[in-house]
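TA notes, week 10

Several of you asked for a full example with nothing omitted. So below is the full record: structure tokens for the whole chain, then the designed sequence directly under it. When grading your own attempts, check the secondary structure regions first.
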């Protein structure tokens, strides 16, 4: 009989402990991805480039030890410890979601860094105090993948041809990217600023051209607006062939007396070109 009572009490205590644990205070992280962390817990955020700003967002909702729900339990999210040279902007107060912005040093070496965060119930009016946890982030320039299509582009002098640049942002930063194409003699193409949010893949159109016939090997460059160390390049081929209009311009400059006739309608244009020289 005594043994049975002891066993009942033992299992009751276990059940009570399980309920208390399940109903304990927690933090719901919503960005850069969904996760739940408890007091003194830890979380790995992902990758960011040196100098690339990233954010951590939590929900203000939580519970206390008895399971009572507080929709605004957390009123502030702060970073209490971070590496030297980094810049931190703590969250606004009393919002339904609380966001901190963290900018690593532009000179941060590759590696995993530790941040200490604290969700705060201001004035402890909900009797849940603060919840401290640790976040880790990997600093590396390898935070995106890129591809370009087509790899071979054909056109005429001065004719804009569209290429497709795909950026797969595998990092946690929403920092914009810059697309630029170099290597076309006599042409200075304007860079374009685009956004591919963290953990997403986006496709962008970019127009290229050359002024004179020839074969070119331009380079498509993608870099982070915030970090020149975050960059990748892909080489493509651009084949520019003379247009019919160029042929007629050549005729006017004393090209062969018997030009290649492409279509009957072009004969008239050729004759007009000759007459204009008389």
């Amino acid at each position: 009989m005594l043994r049975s009572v002891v066993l009942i009490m033992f299992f009751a205590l276990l059940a009570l402990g399980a309920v208390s644990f399940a109903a304990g205070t927690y933090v719901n992280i919503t960005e850069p991805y969904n996760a739940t962390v408890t007091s003194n817990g830890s979380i790995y955020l992902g990758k960011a480039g040196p100098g690339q700003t990233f954010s951590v967002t939590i929900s203000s909702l939580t519970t206390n030890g008895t399971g009572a729900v507080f929709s605004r339990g957390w009123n502030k999210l702060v970073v209490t410890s971070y590496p030297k040279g980094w810049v931190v902007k703590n969250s606004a107060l009393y919002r339904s979601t609380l966001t901190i912005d963290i900018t690593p040093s532009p000179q941060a070496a590759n590696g995993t860094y530790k941040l200490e965060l604290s969700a705060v119930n201001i004035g402890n009016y909900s009797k849940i105090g603060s919840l401290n946890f640790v976040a880790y982030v990997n600093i590396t320039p390898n935070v995106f993948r890129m591809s370009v299509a087509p790899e071979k582009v054909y056109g005429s002098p001065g004719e804009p041809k569209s290429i497709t640049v795909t950026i797969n942002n595998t990092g946690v930063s929403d920092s914009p990217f810059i697309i630029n194409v170099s290597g076309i003699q006599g042409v200075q193409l304007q860079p374009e600023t685009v956004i591919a949010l963290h953990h997403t893949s986006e496709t962008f159109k970019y127009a290229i051209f050359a002024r004179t016939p020839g074969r070119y090997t331009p380079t498509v460059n993608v870099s982070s607006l915030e970090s020149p160390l975050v960059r990748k390049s892909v080489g493509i081929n651009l084949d520019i062939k003379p247009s019919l209009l160029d042929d007629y311009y050549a005729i006017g400059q004393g090209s062969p007396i018997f030009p290649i006739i492409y279509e009957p309608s072009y004969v008239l244009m050729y004759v007009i070109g000759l007459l204009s020289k008389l």
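The chain is about 15% helix and 40% strand. Use that as a sanity check on your answer.
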